[in-house]
C-alpha cells in the first residue's frame, strides 16, 4: 500500500478514535446528569437548596454533606485553622532534622529543642550512631477518682452548632417513625378472586387447573393468600 494511502487511513482512524472518545465522554456526562436529577427528585430538601451553577462537591460542602464516604485521595489542599498553624509551627521547632543538615547526624539524631515532658510521658535519647543512650521519664500522674466517672455519652452540642439547616432537616425526617401502608387489593383483583371463590369455593387445586379464570397459573399457596385477604377485606368469614 502506498505511503499516502496509509497516511490517509491512519488519519481517518485517528479521527474516528477522537470521535468515539467524545461520544463516550458525552454519554458519561449525560448519565451522571440523569442520576443527579433522579437523586434530587427523590429528596426535596436537598433539591430546594441545590445550586445548579456549582458542582456536586461544592453543593455538598455548602450543605454540610459529604459527596464521598472515603477520605480524600488527593487533589484537595487541607485548610488549617489559626490554632492548627500555631501548633504546627511549634512542632516544626522540636522535630528531628530529616535531611541531617543542622546537626550533622543521621535520622535518629537528637532533636534540636527539647520540650518538658508531661505526666506519664517518656523520651528516648540517642547518640550520633543511633544507639539508645537513655530514656527520660516525666512525672507520674497521680490517681484521680474522677477518672472513674461513668461515661455519659459524647457531648454533641458543638457538633449541632456546626450542622447546616439542610442536615438538621434531613436528620429530623430520618427520625420520624416509618408508617407502613398495607397493600390493598385492586378492584380488578377483587373481582377476579370473587369469581374463583364463587366457582370453586376453597378448592385451590381446582383454581390452579382453571386456565380461563387463572391464566397466569398462580400457585395454590398464592391463591390461598389472596383469598384470605379478599375475605378479610369483604368481611367474609
TrEMBL record:
Entry's Gene Ontology cellular component terms: nucleolus
Main location: nucleus
Originating organism: Geotrichum candidum (Oospora lactis)
Family assignment from sequence similarity: Belongs to the NOP16 family.
Localization in the cell: Nucleus, Nucleolus
Keyword vocabulary terms for this entry: Nucleus
InterPro entries documented for this protein: Ribosome_biogenesis_Nop16
Keyword Nucleus: yes
Organism taxonomic ancestry: Eukaryota, Fungi, Dikarya, Ascomycota, Saccharomycotina
One GO biological process term: ribosomal large subunit biogenesis
Known function: Involved in the biogenesis of the 60S ribosomal subunit.
Protein name: Nucleolar protein 16
